[in-house]
Structure formats: C-alpha cells, structure tokens
Design a protein that fits this description.
A: 285 residues; mainly alpha; MetI-like fold; 0% strand; globular; B: D-Maltodextrin-Binding Protein, domain 2; 11-stranded mixed beta sheet
Chain lengths: 285, 387
C-alpha cells in the first residue's frame, strides 16, 4: 500500500505524461534499433530467431575503418576547435567589451542557415574557377590545384559547422572565472601562463568539458561534410549505416552498426564524465 | 481588466479534460473516420511528382490532401512498403523491374484497371505500346502500373574535354584507362554504380555472375574508386563538370545532366556507349519509371484518378519539366504532348539522339547477386577511404 501511495504521490503522478512521452519517443526507437541488430541479415521481421551474426559480420569485415575515420575526425575537430574557440571565448568575455554581443551574433548567425546550404556554399568557394581559385586566376594569373574533395577539407567543414557548439559552452565556462581570482593570482606574482594554467583553465573547465562532449558527439555523427566537401574520399561510419539502411536493404546490419556506434560513443562519454565529474566541476559537491 | 480566478486545482483539472478531449478527438480521427480516404492521397516517388506544378492542380480539382514524399533510390522505397507502410501509401513510383519482378510477387502493389488505362499506352512512343512488358505481370494478364518518365543512363561527359564520338566509342573503357585517373567523378547511386562496375569489368550486370566475374568486378571497383576525383550527388557532379574539376562521371544520363543543360551548358552531355556487354552488343542502360497502386488495405479512391490525371498531354509535359531534373516522357508519342515541348526543352533532354541511345541501351533489371556485389563495392569504398 505504502509503495502504491508513494508511486501515486503528486510528483511521480504528474511525471507520468513526460515519462510516457520519453518512453515512446526516445526509448522505444532505441530499443527497436537494438532489437533489429539481432535479427538475421537482410530481413525485416523483428520476431524471428535472434542471433549475433550481424555483429560477427562487422567484426569480420573492414568496418573498423569508418569507425576509425569518424572517431579520429571527431577528435581532431574537438582539438582544433578547442584551440580556436578558447581565445575567442576569452575575448568575448574579457576583451571585446561592448562589441562582444555583436561578435557573438556573428558566430550565431550561420546557425540560422541550413548546414547543407552552408556546405554547398563552401563548394562554390573552393571549386575550380569558383570564388577563390577563379579570383586568384583572374587577378594574379595564379592557378593552384583545387583542394576540394580532400580529407583536409572534410575536417575544415566539420570545424566550421561545429564551431558554435564548442564556442558557446566555452564562453560560459570562461565567464564563470571570477576576475577577482585572476587579479589575486596576478597580485601574488603569478605569470600569465600560471594564471591560465592554475586559475583560468580549472575554473572554466565545466564549459570546456561540455563543449568537448557536445562537439565530439555531434562530430562523430557527421556525414554531410565527408559526402559533399570531402567527395567521399573518406567514408564515415554514419555513411556505412545509411548505406545499410538504404541501398543494401540490410536494416539488421545498419542497426548493429548503430548500436556499436552508440556503445563506443557512450563509453567514451562515460569515461570522460568519470574523469571530469560534472557535479564537482560545477561546484555542486 | 479580466481576472483569472481559477484555482491551480481547477486549472489542472480543466487542462486534463481538454487534453483528454483532444486525445479522444484525434483517436476518433484514427479509428472509424480513417476509413474515409476519399479526400486523401499519399504518393511515394522520385522527385518531380512531388512538385507543386504537378500536385496543385490535382489538389484544386479534387479538394484532396495530397502528400508526396520524394526519395532518390528504389530500394529504400520498396523497403518502406516491406516494413509495413503499405497502409500509408497509395501510389509508388519506381524504376521498371520492381513492379513486375518484386512488388507484385511480394503483394506490395495491386493491378490497375486494364480497360481504363491500356488505351493510354497506345498514345505513347512506339517502344511503349500495350502490352508493355514492364507494366504487366509475368503472365501478361494484369496491368501493374503506368509508364511515364524514362531515359538512357550510362555516363556523362564534358564534350569540350572528350568529344561525344570518342566517349561513345571508348564507352566503359574510359574507366579502364589509368590515364584518366582523377579526371572523373562517381555519382553516389550505389545500385547504379554496381551496374556500371559490371559494365566496366566487361559483363552484363543483370544476371548471375561467376567467381571469375566477381573477381574482375572487385578489381574494377578498386580501380574506379581509387581513381575517382570524388564521389558525390548529381549537383556536385554537374558543378564539377562545368567548373572543370572533372571531365566525365558515372553514373549519369539525361536525368542527371539535364539541370546543367537547362542552365545553358549544352557541352555537358549524357553518353550511351556504341557497344558493350549486353545482349546484342548493347552498350548502355536505360530506365523507365512505372507508377503503381500500392496494395493498401484502405487505398485512396483517388490513386487511379491521379494516374490518369498525369497522362494528359499538358500534365505529361509538366511532369517532364517539373522541378529538379528534366526527362523525356512516354507521352511524347502523342503530338498533342510533343508539341508542348520547346526546342530548348528538347535540347535539354537530348531529343536529337534519344531514340538511338534507347535502342543501344539494355533496360534496367534486377541483379540476381546484387547483395554480394553491393557488399563488395561498399567494402572497396571503405578500404580505399582516405587513399
């Protein structure tokens, strides 16, 4: 009785609609994907003899290559963005003053344009006889090789697309560092490097870690950059999943690849969260 | 000023009632009323049939809610039906072999009224006269759909870089010549890429293959993807051709290069090889779309009306030049339809060589060992990744 009364307390009772919504909209599709991953290859009926063949097929194939590309490019994107975004976040918080809002707006504006449109815009910019190479040719008679459809440009596209997702949490993190603490450190004789290392970085860490995680998780799922800017010079795991679900008519294989991707990313995120306990760095403990 | 005098409890109770009412209302829509689909039509199609130019006049004349979803590959559309969406869609528009060889045997589509539709085939171009093979079931008794858009689909070149005569003469060997590395792109269309790799390897894709042929196919796949400047969609391919990034691409044809030609780039041209690995020495591949009525237990009565609606000369012309890509239509055999095409439009769809190119092309068919060949190609793409 007590238990029933506990469940039907106003809190849990009112949470029922949200819980149902989450179960149906979030948990159910994920469970379906997991279930499909055990279904025999190239079949569509969920209710049949389940096995691990799809996973065996993945481990016996070259599927590790797209996994490595996706994880590697996502890691590279995070590192490059960390280097680019920290000075910008620092500037927005402490240097740009009244222009900070305007500069923030400049970084926000691209988000209002579809990612695909922006990426195709880069194609027009970089393509032979396009904005960049066409201008160089007509103005200076200089005609370098096009850098379109290369792995490097795929990485550039990812850095460009995911920049706001690193910048804004990082700006939040940097803004959490009290100026007085920095001033005190300088007064006590700390060098700029020491202040950065001992004060700025540790205190801004919540924002930095959130930026890292957000960017990494999004970048691992990137597909358009490799497909359009990279001309498929590299195949990310998301493309392998897409092929399995479409041309290959092999939903079980696609589901198994998706489950593995979720496991790999989930594990990495958990490891990072264990290393940087968010509650501790957010000062809640 | 009005005063909000509900208590929180009243507000919650009223909200719950309203929510319950809304939910019940929507359920009512799902249950008995859902049976009435006289003003609703759902179409699964390639782009063009989902355009406002095609759908709006039908919406206006019938007062119906017409929903059309466009996809750019056949297997995905077939999968949607296999996965249980036969109770959602009323019409499906895919390439020729699927209706006769896959969807009809699997019970995914149903025959259409032969008496009502067969006369339309008599007004089509000569190759499509009734009984048109791809629109009929195996026994040749039942009509499974209507033919409209079609075209040759082998590869596309920039004729400023490779003349039409050279491209037609060299055919698929363009991809066997190492000197052409990085001069070409591959349009990402996995099923068609499989067909083309078979042609490059020197055999007909539309039959079972020996181990030796599969080995040749694997080598061809490695060579083609290693030598490709890029793999991308048709917009990227056309742009790369126009800008000079590449000189030619596979897979392609009137369908894929028509947007570039419509933009004035008549040097971008679909090519059908003079000779090749198909029966009778045919060198290219062609496609013909067949639009069928889905075996929906509660199919819209408007499904067949729509099929008839797009047969009119005016609407056939609209379908040919709907947004996206531009294609010949079977109804061009009827002068009332043909006369609606301007000279520029005929140039865009390469009318000058259409008949001879179709004659040199084998018709798209099911590849019996497609799964194996696709898996090989996917693995090759992965393994040449980054190279």
């Amino acid at each position: 009785m007590d238990r029933l009364a506990k469940i039907f307390r106003p809190g849990p009772r009112h949470a029922i609609p949200v819980m149902l919504f989450l179960l149906l909209g979030f948990v159910a599709p994920l469970v379906t994907v997991v279930m499909y991953s055990f279904v025999p290859s190239r079949t569509f009926d969920l209710w049949q003899d389940w096995n691990l063949d799809n996973y065996a097929e993945i481990f016996n194939s070259s599927s590790y290559i797209p996994f490595v590309w996706s994880l590697g490019l996502a890691a590279a994107t995070v590192l490059i963005l960390a280097v680019i975004c920290y000075p910008v976040a620092f500037g927005i918080t402490r240097v740009f003053g009244k222009y900070a809002t305007f500069i923030t707006l400049l970084f926000t504006l691209p988000l209002f344009v579809s990612e695909n449109v922006r990426i195709y815009g880069w194609i027009l910019f970089f393509i032979k006889n396009g904005v960049l190479l066409g201008s160089l040719k007509s103005m200076f008679g200089y005609e370098p090789e096009s850098i379109l459809f290369t792995t490097g440009l795929t990485l550039m596209g990812m850095v460009y697309v995911y920049l706001p997702f690193m910048l804004f949490p990082m700006t939040l993190g940097v803004s959490m560092v009290p100026q007085q603490t920095r001033d005190a450190a300088f007064d006590l004789g700390a060098t700029r490097w020491q202040v950065f290392k001992e004060v700025d970085l540790p205190l801004a860490m919540p924002g930095i870690v959130i930026g890292f995680l957000l960017t990494f998780v999004l970048a691992v799922g990137a597909i358009a950059e490799a497909k359009v800017l990279g001309g498929q010079r590299i195949i990310p795991i998301t493309q392998d999943i897409e092929t399995a679900f479409t041309y290959a008519q092999n939903w079980p294989l696609g589901a198994a690849l998706s489950v593995l991707l979720m496991l790999v990313v989930g594990t990495l995120v958990l490891v990072v969260l264990r290393r940087f306990d968010l509650d501790t760095i957010l000062g809640k403990k | 000023m009005s005063k909000f005098n509900q208590t929180r409890r009243d507000f919650l109770q009223n909200s719950a009632l309203m929510a319950g009412g809304l939910a019940a209302g929507s359920m009512a829509g799902v249950l008995p009323a859902a049976a009435d689909r006289s003003k609703e039509l759902n179409i699964l199609c390639w782009e063009g049939y989902n355009s406002a130019q095609v759908l709006d006049p039908f919406r206006t004349s019938t007062g119906a809610t017409v929903r059309a979803e466009s996809l750019t590959n056949d297997p995905t559309m077939i999968n949607r039906l296999r996965a249980g969406e036969t109770n959602i869609w009323d019409l499906i528009n895919v390439n020729n072999p699927w209706a006769r060889k896959v969807m009809n045997p699997e019970g995914l589509i149903k025959p259409i009224d032969k008496a009502r539709f067969e006369p339309y085939f008599d007004k089509m171009l000569p190759a499509f006269k009734a009984p048109y093979k791809w629109a009929m079931d195996d026994a040749g008794d039942q009509l499974l759909g209507m033919a409209q858009r079609f075209g040759p689909y082998s590869f596309v070149v920039n004729t400023d870089k490779i003349s039409r005569a050279t491209a037609e003469d060299q055919g698929w060997d363009l991809w066997n010549d190492a000197a052409n590395d990085k001069k070409y792109g591959v349009q990402a269309s996995d099923d068609w890429n499989v067909f083309d790799l078979c042609c490059i390897a020197g055999f007909d894709p539309f039959r079972e293959h020996t181990d030796e042929e599969v080995a040749k196919y694997t080598d061809a796949a490695k060579r083609v993807f290693k030598g490709a400047r890029m793999v991308g969609d048709l917009a990227t391919m056309n742009q790369a051709l126009v800008s000079g990034e590449i000189d030619f691409y596979l897979t392609g044809g009137t369908y894929s290069c028509s947007p570039a030609r419509a933009d004035g780039n008549l040097n971008i041209r679909a090519i059908t090889p003079l000779r090749g690995p198909f029966e009778g020495g045919k060198g290219g591949i062609s496609w013909i779309e067949i639009t069928s009525v889905v075996n929906n237990p509660d199919v819209s009565p408007l499904a067949e009306d729509f099929l008839e609606y797009v047969q009119s000369p005016e609407m056939s012309h609209t379908v040919a030049f709907a947004e996206g890509t531009f294609n010949p239509v079977t109804q061009m055999g009827n002068s009332a339809c043909f006369d609606l095409f301007s000279k520029e439009e005929l140039d865009v769809i390469q009318w000058d060589s259409l008949e001879e190119e179709m004659a040199r092309s084998a018709e798209y068919d099911i590849v019996p060992d497609y799964d194996k060949l696709l898996d090989i190609m996917t693995a090759v793409k992965r393994e040449t990744s980054g190279g």
